[in-house]
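Handout, section 4.2: multi-component inputs.
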Amino acid sequence: MSSEQDHLKETDTEARFGFKKEQNSAFETEKGLTEETIRLISDDKDEPDWMRDRRLRALRQFHEMPMPTDWPGQPDLTEVDIDEIVPYIRPDIDTRGGVDDWEELPEEIQDTFDKLGIPEAEKNALSGVGAQYESEIVYQNMQEQWEEKGVIFCDMDKAVQEHPDLVEEYFMTKCVPPSDNKFAALHGAVWSGGSFVYVPENVTVEMPVQAYFRMNSEGMGQFEHTLIVAEENSEVHYIEGCSAPQYSQFNLHSGCVEVFVKDGAHVQYSTVQNWSKNTYNLNTKRAIAEKDATMEWVSGSMGSKATMLYPCTILKGPGATDNHITIAFAGEGQNIDTGAKVYHNAPNTKSTIESKSISKDGGRTNYRGLVHIADGAEDSSTSVECDALMFDNESTSDTMPYMEIEESKVDVAHEATVGKIGDEDVFYLQSRGLDDDDAKQMIVAGFIEPITEELPIEYAVELNRLIELEMEGSLG
Amino acid sequence: MARLEIKNLHAKVNEDGGEKILNGVDLEVASGEIHALMGPNGSGKSTTAKVIAGHPAYEVTDGEVLIHLDDDEFEDIEITEDDQTWDILDLEPNERAALGVFLGFQYPAEIEGVTMVNFLRTALNAKLEEREELFEDDEETEAEAEEDDAGYETSPMEGEADEGEIGVAEFQQLLKEKMEQLEMDETFAQRYLNAGFSGGEKKQNEVLQAAILEPSIAVLDEIDSGLDIDRLQDVSTGINALRDEQNAGILQITHYQRILDYVEPDHVHIMLDGKVAMSGDSELAVKLEENGYDWVREEVYETA
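Output:
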């Protein structure tokens, strides 16, 4: 063993000890980002060499790339200091890679999920919930019938161990390479946890596959990776929920989602995210849709100090379809910069983008969208609709819909509306007995209904609750 | 029995230098009575209606709008002598609704994404809850009410009813009955509140809401405008039922005699220049239909 390795082991032990004592975690890295830290993460996870090498390459790319600063109306990222972030914390749970029984979870984690109603969601309907607490998947329950059909749903770290061929082929190679943007590179270096979903040819997973993430420690980063591969003519609906409580220090969430939708397959990715008001939520989410495939993004973005998130679909095969439905809510001191990107790279492709935003108490929402129709993508069509709802004159909402159309035989529609919550609407509801707050809540609930109707009822209720709490200003 | 009493009501548009619209309106409507309020455009009819309901666009500069309630006006609530008269100008619009005042809008708002059935059940429950709060004035109940508010009872997506509320199944039955009475299609319940409704459907919907919310006094602002003859009859049936079955007092604002053939008024009032210039029985409406408003103006200002 070299002296360097010795040193690393020592740091490792110290970290474990220190952490167990004070924060009840099994292992955490030092603050900041060095090759050493990356090696530590990789070693702690017993990763194969190729994964460690990918991490190290991504780290170099991260250090080479500048922070995004000069987009019009972009959220201010000057506070994001990578050196202050603890990139990896593993909770103190015996079973690496998750436990199968809810009751085996530490009480505090059960409590946290209880408060969020997650066991309810699990009981009431659905099928598999993988819940990630800090950086590791800690709970998994997968229905046997899926396994029999060859469906894989597990946490990403486990996937690296058990399905290395699949992961090596798809992980940050063809869809989101680390060179894509600074935060994708950061993610590639420090990623941890997340979900891996693999659906074989001609298999339909009838019930939504669900995962829930929660960031619970102060000043940590969360970098979960979600990789979904839907083989030809398969179908799956994946749902992710995320939240983080309030801390004084800032948090960074920089997740990555990669979705492969093969010929004729259909994937819906839905997420309801509620981050604490000090979280910087900087994600990269992208899908590649092959011939006659359908990709659907449904997302509700709540909380965070700043969010930059533009789920993207590359319509690679002829006849591929993409639908985006997004909702953003920005209150005081928040800047939610979100939208959608679609690349029409083949003929007969279709996309629709429906974006809704709500801003209040000086909050700022941006719709930033890009629709690119390549030369030769004839008979393609796109329709973009953005609606912004504002509570007051202090709040702002901007629409930045970029359209790059290189093909003439296409159908392009864009529509944007910006409005204040109407006094007449509020008065109408009040005259029927609702008080001022309830009237406004009802109008907002109606405004976001296109999102909630796409979600299973538990998530829809959760989203409505979150928005109610935001509107009352009672969410920390 | 309930009685709405408007005394010397003055109001202006709620902005600096806003136009004065009401110049001393006096009017009384009691349970079981139908009053027609007529008058040329700009005479203040709609403003009167909106001020009664508490529209924020108007500022009341003088006068009172009182509601007098008998001790047995509401089921489950016994009204003590102290609480029998309220000046509703001091109250929020939803509190006025809780005391039994209903405004049927000429141009109702369209609220996307909110189904009729959810909206109406939420409104009905909110009204019942508000009513309880208005009549239980000690601090204890206020504290209780605040505690209640910490939950999610008001969510339009709520499931089971809380205590004292009308549950989903029970409400659906009530709604179904009322819609049948008004000959409304049952798909109505799942449509979004007024969104994409025709003019006639909107008016019918206003009457449906009154039927569900059971007001003591319903002010109906040009509920007859834009209706074809069949729809006018349906709406009129609904209005008559409000009076006959629920003993509501109706203040019917209209331009035309037409609806008064179906909803026969006990009293007809004519507004001119922001006040009630003349009152009479149903014959007065017939006379207006024949002769217009000029003779009213002449008569009123000559004798003045």
